[in-house]
Every structure is written in C-alpha cells, then in structure tokens.
C-alpha cells in the first residue's frame, strides 16, 4: 500500500469517527434541550401554582390546605432541583461531545491537509522530472543537430 493510499484510508477512518462524534453531539444537544425545557416548565408551573394559591389564601384557607400546599411545594422544589441537576449533567455531556467532535474534525482536517501537501510534493517532483526529461531531450536534439552539421 502506498503512502497516499494509507493516508486516504486514514482520512476515511477519521471522517467516519467525526461523523459518529457529530451524531453523539447532536443527541447530547437534544437531551440538553429537553432537560432545559423540562426545568423551565417546572419552574413556570411552580410560579403559576404559587400565584394561584397566594390568591386563594388571601380569600380563605385552612391549616390542612396550607399543609398540603407546603408539602406539594416541597416536592415541586425537589423536582425542580433534580431537573436542574439533570440539565447540568446534560450540559456537561453536550460539552464533552462538542470537544470530542472538535478533536475528530481537527484530526480529519490534519490528515486532509497532509494529503494535499503530499499531492503537491508529488506534483512538484513530477514536474521537475518532466522538465529534466524535456531538457535532456532538447539537449540530445541539439547535440544531434550539431553533430549532423559537423559531418555535413
């Protein structure tokens, strides 16, 4: 296997890894979005619930209802805190996935650049070889025509 073939295989492998990392990052972004939406919904629901019951308690309320309200708010606050932790974990997962994607993109770009550089070097070497062959041919023709003139 030539060096260029090996680099091409390496590039294909790096691009597959990059594509896989992109899918992981997209999934992580979707999970982060869902977790943040859920946290926002819980937060909004708590604010709405507090507002509704605040109005209710201004009119009337018993101790039993107040205890139920306080217990429910405690469970709701726990749920919000838990969802915020889930959202933070999702954010960290998304960040790690982005970093992995950047790593793989950089690797693929590096290999692609190396292939371009090697191709340019080969083209330059081939151009020099062709120029040398052309110069030698021109020199032979010149020597042949001089030799022909001297013998004539």
From TrEMBL:
Pfam families: FliJ. Residues 11-52 form a coiled coil. It is found in: Cell membrane. Keywords: Bacterial flagellum biogenesis, Bacterial flagellum protein export, Cell membrane, Cell projection, Chemotaxis, Cilium, Coiled coil, Flagellum, Membrane, Protein transport, Transport. The keyword Coiled coil applies. It is a peripheral membrane protein. Its main location: membrane. Belongs to the FliJ family. NCBIfam families: flagell_FliJ. This is Flagellar FliJ protein. The gene is fliJ.
């Amino acid at each position: 296997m030539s060096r260029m073939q090996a680099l091409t295989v390496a590039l294909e492998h790096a691009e597959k890894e990059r594509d896989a990392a992109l899918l992981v990052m997209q999934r992580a972004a979707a999970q982060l979005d869902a977790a943040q939406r859920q946290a926002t919904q819980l937060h909004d629901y708590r604010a709405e619930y507090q507002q509704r019951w605040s109005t209710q308690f201004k009119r009337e309320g018993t101790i039993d209802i107040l205890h139920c309200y306080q217990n429910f708010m405690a469970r709701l606050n726990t749920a919000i805190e838990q969802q915020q932790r889930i959202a933070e974990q999702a954010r960290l997962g998304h960040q790690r996935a982005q970093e992995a994607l950047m790593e793989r993109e950089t690797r693929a770009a590096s290999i692609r650049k190396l292939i371009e550089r090697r191709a340019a070097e080969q083209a330059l070497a081939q151009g020099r070889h062709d120029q040398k062959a052309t110069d030698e041919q021109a020199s032979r023709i010149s020597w042949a025509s001089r030799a022909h003139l001297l013998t004539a």
